Amino acid sequence: MLRSLKWLQVIWDSPIFSLIFVLHSKYMDYQQTLDYLYERLPMFTRVGAAAFRKDLHNTIELCERLGNPQHKFKSIHIAGTNGKGSTSHMLAAIFQQAGYKTGLYTSPHLTDFRERIRINGEMVPTTFVTEFVQQMQPSIEALDPSFFELTVAMAFQYFALEQVDIAIIEVGLGGRLDSTNIITPELSVITNISYDHMNILGNTLPEIATEKAGIIKAGIPVVISQTQSEIAEIFREKAASLHAPIHFADQEWLMQENELTAGHLKLGFLPHKGGEMKRLTLDLYGQYQIKNIMGVLSAVKVLQQGDWKLPDAVVAEALSHVKKITGLRGRWDIIDKKPLTILDVGHNEAGITEIVEQLRHMVYRHLHIVTGFVKDKEVDKVLSILPSSATYYFCKSQIPRALDEKILAEMAGTKGLRGHTYSSVQQAFMTAKQNAHEEDVVLVCGSFFIVAEVM
């Protein structure tokens, strides 16, 4: 009898039991809801490929149980390796500035789960999150969805209930089998394609591009932000097979002006087919935004030809205040000036290449880089790109996928990168700040989660 009571006590005290017990209580709060989701559902950002479901079954079933909310609002779908987050936020800012009630779904989040789901820049209320999870708990237990599958269903339900005019939907991973790929959008946008998640999407650019091209829909226009010779034909063939009008943005715009002043990026574009110069001032500082902005301009041009009222003056105003309008963070994000301290979520070969290129345009005394990676990235390739003249602060984020900082330092050493290891991101960041002269640069990059922990 005593042994039975002891086992009951162990079960009662276990976190899972407590979460399930609390879930059935009408008094479950927001933090308890998140704890349940993190404990119960496989989350890609924490465990990697094991959380990726290679079909749309769960998403379709979840949404059917909700009355198919994805069919109750208009949307724009955005895929790509790098740039899809910035592109999503820019388009959301434009629609919002134009007076449309605008939903925005992105992932992952930096500091608050609710960053993933916004309307007009405001995060989804905690009450909606808790009530949605309580409502869907029987389906969660029956279907065993991934964290991302449930989050997509949550976003679609919220946008439908709130009757948004438009929702900008960012693909999580790939495209063809991504949970977001059950919408029929007004427009599809595909940004830069580069090597990332190769264990899931394929080992070559054509294989990866084929997965991204899976968001192209029959008769729906698609904008390709950057023409890449080795994969352009894949997009052309896919679009042609579905009679989808295709636009390569960098073939539609010619950059005439490019200046970085007072923390703003000033750009001027001429339409290739003739017309007035479009002069823009972006509050997103990275030079790599030039590729993204061309895709945004082509997307706006397609939408203007439809029923969407997006005047050029509104577009320009929105692009000058994207961060303020949408809450975008972590893209060449300057958080201090002495020393200049920059956060950037660039984490793969193409992303780090763009960061290094940006650094070449800057004047500073010395560079300090706080960095860490996850195990399933092509870390070797990225380390080969990083500057050997910098001082490195190797660290590890608090997720299971994180690469051990000592292993990272050893790998970096073979590439001529020198620095010290730190047991926490905060320790690494604070040490870098303490060591830096006011004319130095402190850069935090390498993983979304390293940036998140600094923030």
Cα Rg: 23 Å
Query: What is the 3D form?
Result: globular
Number of strands: 17
Low-pLDDT residue spans: 1-25, 44-49
Q: Class by helix and strand content?
A: alpha/beta
CATH class identity of the largest domain: Alpha Beta
Average residue-wise pLDDT: 89
Largest sheet: 8 strands, mixed
State the oligomer.
Answer: single chain
Overview features:
42% helix, 6-stranded mixed sheet, 8-stranded mixed sheet, globular, UDP-N-acetylmuramoyl-L-alanine:D-glutamate ligase, 19 helices, Protein-Tyrosine Phosphatase, Chain A, 455 residues
Architecture overview:
With 455 residues, the chain is α/β, with parallel strands linked by helices. The chain folds into 3 domains: 2-40, no CATH class; 55-326, UDP-N-acetylmuramoyl-L-alanine:D-glutamate ligase, CATH 3.40.1190; 333-454, Protein-Tyrosine Phosphatase, Chain A (Alpha-Beta Complex), CATH 3.90.190. It contains 19 helices and 17 strands. The chain has helices spanning 2-13, 15-23, 30-40, 44-47, 57-65, 84-97, 126-143, 147-161, 198-201, 205-212, 232-241, 289-304, 312-319, 322-326, 349-360, 379-385, 405-413, 425-435, 448-454; strands at 75-79, 102-105, 117-119, 122-123, 166-170, 187-190, 222-224, 246-248, 253-261, 264-271, 278-282, 333-337, 340-343, 367-371, 391-394, 418-421, 441-445. Strands 4-3-2-5-1-6-7-8 form an 8-stranded mixed sheet, sandwiched between helices. It has a 6-stranded mixed sheet with strand order 12-13-17-14-15-16. Strands 9-10-11 form a 3-stranded antiparallel sheet. The longest helix has 18 residues, at 126-143. The chain is globular, with a radius of gyration of 23 Å. It starts with a helix and ends with a helix. Mean pLDDT is 89; it is low at 1-25 and 44-49.
